[in-house]
UniProtKB/TrEMBL annotation:
Name the UniProt record assigns to this protein: Leucine/isoleucine/valine transporter subunit ATP-binding component of ABC superfamily
Taxonomic placement: Bacteria, Pseudomonadati, Pseudomonadota, Alphaproteobacteria, Hyphomicrobiales
GO molecular function ontology, one term from the record: ATP binding
Domain ABC transporter residues, every copy: 4-233
PANTHER family in the cross-refs: HIGH-AFFINITY BRANCHED-CHAIN AMINO ACID TRANSPORT ATP-BINDING PROTEIN (PTHR43820:SF5), HIGH-AFFINITY BRANCHED-CHAIN AMINO ACID TRANSPORT ATP-BINDING PROTEIN LIVF (PTHR43820)
Protein source organism: Mesorhizobium plurifarium
CDD domains given in the database record: ABC_TM1139_LivF_branched (cd03224)
Amino acid sequence: MSLLSVEDLVVRHGLLQAVRGVSFDVARGETLALVGANGAGKTTLLRAIAGAHQAASGRVTFDGADLSGVPSHERVRKGIALVPEGRRLFVQMTVEENLLLGRSADRAGDWSVERVLETFPNLKPRRHARAGHLSGGEQQATAIGRALMSNPDLLLLDEVSLGLSPLIVDRVYASLQELISSGTTIILVEQDLNRALSVSNKVICMLEGRIALAGDSMTVSRDEVTKAYFGLHRKGAGGVPA
Ligand SMILES: Nc1ncnc2c1ncn2[C@@H]1O[C@H](COP(=O)(O)OP(=O)(O)OP(=O)(O)O)[C@@H](O)[C@H]1O
């Protein structure tokens, strides 16, 4: 049975349909990369799964339970944790205090402040620093750590590399790789196609609110994804922009 099942989901911002009838499944232990151009609907889809944005129609089923009408804080209790774009840390609070907020879901599991600091060693010396004083990479690690502290079954990561230097992105991804190896189920939105394909088992490319391409990350070609990204696959156009 799938851990997450999304069926014909429609999500609106006012009159705009940002997600238009999207369906897919994620099995336990899988990593799904969501790619697509700006405005394709990736963030809106993640937020709808997390319950941060209400769907207009369709269904999200998690671990066999229909989540329709279930508010976001209840979804965290059920095991869905979102690391939002822009991190959204409490800047006046320390790293440790931000991490401990993840505990409010009160879910059983192995994640502790110590384990987060082991996973993200760059945070160790910053444990008592205010989040507002951290570098971008340290903030990102804190945001992921805070989500892990809820002992999630499903981790939703929205553009974790945004605004970070390539070196720091490498570090964040090295830590993510450990999470993936330990069996955490992840959906991640990533702009960098190579990174998205290398870290995931499955990839979905969104275009204007719809799934333009869904495939196996190992077998799908970069060209196919790039074409789907630009909507060239359905127009039958030949070349892929450089
Ligand atoms: N709060 C909002 N109010 C109105 N429209 C919105 C809102 N958030 C997103 N949109 C619109 O919904 C569509 C999907 O946006 P969304 O942020 O989900 O896309 P995305 O693929 O995550 O893009 P990005 O990479 O730019 O974050 C876009 O047309 C966007 O302008």
